[in-house]
Each structure stands twice: as structure tokens, then as C-alpha cells.
Amino acid sequence: MILICAVLLILVVLIQNSKGGGLASNFSQGNQVMGVKKTTDFLEKATWTLAICLAVFCLAASFTIPHEKKNDAPKTEQTQEAAAEDAAAEDAANAGAEATAE
């Protein structure tokens, strides 16, 4: 829905022109039932509606899509492994220092 809403919003915005011209004025020349003002009003309402829908869909998606919870176990294991390696290195260094001292 977000993708469809975004594409429609892009199309509606591209049809409009901030100066009142653009593609909307070309379409309304052939259609005398809806005047230029009504076409502009429709495109403005469509733009606002699609923009609001896009924002609502994005917010709804952020709350409804499940997120992965960070698991501290791998970090803890890595930290414990690093601490064990550091301790082993210190023991080796201490043993080497004691051997050279003798």
C-alpha cells in the first residue's frame, strides 16, 4: 500500500504546476464540465489525501512490522572469550617472565 500510495502521489504532483499551468491545464481545456479551478481543487485534495495516507501507512508499518530484538548472548560470549584470551596471554607472559628470571 505504501508503494502504491507513493507512486500515485508522485503522479499527482507531476500533473500539477505551482503556477497554475502544466499538464492539469492541458487536460481541463478539453473538458468543459470541470473547469480549471475544479481540476486544480481536485488535484490539491488528492495530493493532501495521498500525503496523509502515506504518512499513516508508514506509521502503521513501523508499529506492526516485527523488529528483531538485540540478543546480548553473542556479545557476552565474545566478551568472555576475549577475557579468557587476555588471561591466557597474561599467564603466558607471567610464565615467560618467571622463566627468564630463574
Question: How would you describe this structure to a colleague?
Answer:
The chain is mainly α and 102 residues long. The chain folds into two domains: 1-67; 71-102. It is built from four helices and no strands. The protein starts with a helix and ends with a helix.
Give a brief outline of the structure.
It contains 4 helices and no strands.
Protein traits:
single chain; 102 residues; mainly alpha; 78% helix
Mean pLDDT: 76
Q: How large is the radius of gyration?
A: 33 Å
Task: Determine the structural class based on helices, strands and strand pairing.
Answer: mainly alpha
Q: Please give the largest β-sheet.
A: none
Q: What portion of residues is helical?
A: over 70%
Distance linking N and C termini: 77 Å
SSE sequence, one letter per element: HHHH
Domain module tally: 2
How many individual β-strands? 0
Outline the fold blueprint.
Blueprint: H1 2-15, H2 23-30, H3 36-64, H4 73-101
Helix pairs in contact: 1-3, 2-3
